[in-house]
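wait is this the right file?? whatever heres the structure
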């Protein structure tokens, strides 16, 4: 049951974080004939799945090094807050004139934008290889098939964005506690409260991000 719950969290986080990837896939392949476009999209998606698996497994190994996991947790915490900000990052995407160029563009852009997904999955899966592979393999095709639907859902149901941000911040808190060095320090300094850190970070990020998101800009 716990594995099903974790898989659901992985899918939710990927759903919220993969909007840019859907745009990249669409832009990189839009100039190709229909038959070639479908081939580029599917080969690009398959390559993205393999790339994410390799990067996430590398992240799982690296996160075992003292303080690396704590650094990853802090980075994921920032990503969670950034998710709720109105400003959006745009990545320049060249439009492929051939199937191979389109696939290459999709993979290059996915590599650049994979940091948030990789950290989130590595933190959530806790080294479970099956969860990592299944979560990534399911999430990428969902983005390929339903990029327009996903965008509509996120605009229509903002609660999905807040839920994704909470899961990311909660995972960041767990990563801080699981760090070999920092986790032991937190347990010593906050013997009764350290276990509440993930929930506190999740609530704080959602509250702060929500306030920032809805605060009118001046100037």
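ok assuming it is, sequence goes like this
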């Amino acid at each position: 049951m716990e594995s099903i719950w974790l898989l659901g969290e992985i899918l939710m986080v990927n759903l919220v974080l993969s909007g840019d990837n859907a745009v990249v896939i669409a832009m990189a392949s839009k100039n190709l004939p229909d038959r070639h476009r479908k081939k580029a999209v599917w080969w690009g998606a398959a390559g993205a799945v393999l790339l994410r698996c390799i990067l996430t497994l590398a992240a799982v190994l690296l996160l075992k090094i003292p303080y690396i996991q704590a650094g990853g947790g802090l980075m994921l915490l920032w990503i969670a807050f950034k998710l709720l900000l109105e400003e959006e990052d745009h990545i320049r995407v060249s439009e492929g004139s051939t199937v191979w160029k389109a696939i290459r563009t999709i993979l290059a852009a996915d590599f650049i934008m994979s940091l948030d997904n990789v950290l989130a999955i590595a933190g959530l899966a806790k080294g479970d290889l099956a969860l990592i592979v299944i979560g990534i393999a399911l999430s990428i095709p969902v983005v390929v098939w339903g990029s327009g639907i996903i965008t509509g859902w996120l605009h229509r149901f903002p609660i999905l964005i807040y839920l994704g941000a909470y899961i990311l911040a909660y995972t960041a808190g767990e990563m801080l506690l699981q760090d070999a060095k920092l986790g032991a320090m937190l347990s010593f300094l906050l013997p009764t409260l350290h276990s509440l850190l993930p929930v506190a970070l999740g609530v704080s990020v959602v509250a702060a991000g929500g306030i920032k998101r809805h605060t009118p800009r001046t100037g």
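The chain has a mean pLDDT of 76. so i think its the right one actually
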